[in-house]
Design brief:
It is found in: Membrane. The protein is mainly α. It is built from ten helices and two strands. A hairpin with a 3-residue loop joins strand 1 and strand 2.
């Protein structure tokens, strides 16, 4: 698993886009569903952290996507027999896509993203967007779980309930999560202003960045030179 963490961020990002392309190009649910299951099994095989929470979210996403597509196709006059494969294929594509980028987020630290972006000489705004996007999403997920724990502490059962109730409670977490996201964005912008972030100023990296990301530059013992 440590090798996955040390893999260059852009290599992992390219792999995620490749998986996404395959997920959206495979025809129908007969190929899409096994491919989505395979993506989740790969996450389990390489030991990506937080997989249990991802699987719960993926199942919830599958239910919501299939329900929305079935309702949408029903109002378009499509029978349930024809609508179900379409909904299953769309849900499978989304699961495979989210699994690929979940791998990138869980195995990429903000420092490794900054190092890879700086070594690639990306524009400062691109470096900032990449580091914030892949760094903030895990933090928001942790906030989402803390909100759920607070709901449990106040007597709101969010686990052993029916799916419609679980969806309603999940939506109830959206408002405090949005407030927390706005506060986090304000704190980040304030910190950047304090530290003098300037889009016109180039940055350097303190890491060796190639196919793998090395945590520090090699050094020699001064005693060996004497």
């Amino acid at each position: 698993m440590s090798q996955m963490h040390d893999l260059n961020f852009f290599v992992k990002l390219a792999l995620a886009f490749a998986v996404m392309a395959v997920a959206w190009l495979v025809p129908g649910w007969r190929f899409g569903v096994p491919f989505a299951v395979l993506c989740v099994l790969v996450l389990w095989a390489i030991g990506v952290p937080g997989l249990r929470g991802y699987v719960k979210g993926a199942l919830l996403l599958t239910a919501m996507v299939m329900a929305s597509w079935l309702v949408n196709l029903f109002f378009q006059g499509v029978g349930i027999g024809d609508a179900l494969p379409v909904a299953a294929a769309m849900a499978a594509r989304l699961i495979a896509t989210t699994a690929a980028f979940y791998f990138v987020m869980e195995t990429s630290s903000p420092g490794s993203i900054l190092a890879a972006a700086s070594a690639a000489r990306l524009p400062p705004i691109a470096t900032l967007v990449l580091s914030l996007t892949f760094g903030i999403i895990p933090m928001l997920r942790d906030d989402f779980e803390r909100i759920a724990d607070a709901q449990r502490a106040r007597g709101m059962e969010v686990d052993d309930v029916a799916l419609p109730t679980k969806l309603r409670f999940a939506l109830a977490r959206g408002v405090p999560l949005l407030v927390q996201a706005i506060r986090m964005a304000h704190a980040i912008s304030f910190s950047l202003a304090i530290y003098g972030f300037d889009l016109k100023r180039n940055r350097t990296t303190w890491r060796n960045v190639g196919l793998m990301v090395e945590p520090r530059f090699p050094w020699k013992d001064t005693n060996d030179e004497t």
